[in-house]
Specification:
The protein has 129 residues and is mainly β. It has one domain: Beta Barrel (Lipocalin), CATH 2.40.128. The chain has 1 helix and 10 strands. The protein has a 10-stranded antiparallel sheet. A hairpin with a 2-residue loop joins strand 3 and strand 4. The longest helix has 4 residues.
């Protein structure tokens, strides 16, 4: 069972993104969980690699002590299951379904499948210390 303290610190992050039309992209960089206000600030930085080049990219979330994840603007995103498993987020009109796998801790993955009229992709993120 994972706790917030397990995530704190620096991680290498590699992400594969596959779109429904067959196009693909990658993200290479790092993720950091920093203890803050009883939870943690999650910041990932790196490069998004697509057919037209490499672009700087950054994403931020806030994590609660209970592994709840919130967008940086304060909206709830989803709940990470402490033992791994499924999570979901409805972002009208698209459905986001996740699967967390902690079975090879401290290496772990998060797979998101996004389907709807606006979005259609799968994103697999690999984290390791």
């Amino acid at each position: 069972m994972r706790r917030l303290q397990d995530f704190l610190g620096d991680w290498r992050l590699a992400r594969e993104i596959t779109h429904g039309d067959g196009s693909a992209a990658r993200f290479e960089g790092q993720a950091e969980w920093r203890a803050e206000d009883g939870g943690a600030l999650y910041v990932e930085t790196g490069e998004l690699i697509i057919g037209t080049g490499r672009f700087a990219a950054e994403r931020r979330y806030r994590w609660g002590a209970d592994l709840s994840v919130w967008f940086d603007d304060g909206r709830f995103f989803h709940q990470v299951p402490p033992g791994g498993g499924a999570a979901a987020h409805w972002c009208d009109p698209d459905q986001y379904d996740a699967e967390y796998d902690f079975s090879r801790w401290p290496e772990w993955t998060a797979r998101w499948r996004v389907r709807g009229p606006r979005k259609d992709y799968e994103m697999l993120s690999h984290y390791r210390r």
